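Technical note accompanying the year-one report. For the benefit of new consortium partners, we illustrate the data format agreed upon in the data management plan: each record pairs a sequence with a structure-token string. No post-processing was applied to the example shown here.
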Amino acid sequence: MAHVWISNPGCYPTGTIAMVRPLIEAGLLPSEYPLTVNALSGYSGGGRKMIEAYEAKTKPVTNPYLPYGLEFEHKHVDEMQTHGRLAHRPLFQPSVAPYRQGMIVSVPLQLWAFDSAPTGAMIYDCLAARYRDTQFVVVEPPGQAVAPSNLDPRALNGTNMLKIYVFINENRRQAVLSAVYDNLGKGASGAAVQNLNLLLGANAAAGLQAA
């Protein structure tokens, strides 16, 4: 009997790859670009020991912002590079906050460093076209006023949704791409269920919450 091996994406690479790979494949982002990824996650993304530390009955961790992975050997970096189609390992700086789940992953881009810098419209059009026919990924247009609640890492908790926000300053030739999603949903179990549905030939959305 033949075996089929399926790898499920990690939570941090899910947002990174979703934003970066379409731009590289479209030629808007050079694969050699020295990419930086900044991310904030609920403590459930750190595994059993971190969960126990934050939920300890005595002296629980209460830091509002705790960077980690500063040895730059985080287990998800290779996945970001390989499936993001990056020529070099990205500089990844994860952090954790004192809530259980939900995350925001951001990729800053110095467009002035590109030989041919894309405009905000070009970046948005590329991402919007890539995800136009998908049920669980929404790309917000650049220049849209963003309420603080939209950029709350917990805004999409309990769903399989992923929202990408495109921020561009054309005069400064700088951009930030941000993805908001649930690290236990789209970043973990939601993606696993969606992949299983595809493997079985079922509706990819079966059993998944969109909003």
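Partners are asked to follow this layout when depositing records. Helices lie at 11-25, 48-54, 77-84, 120-131, 185-200.
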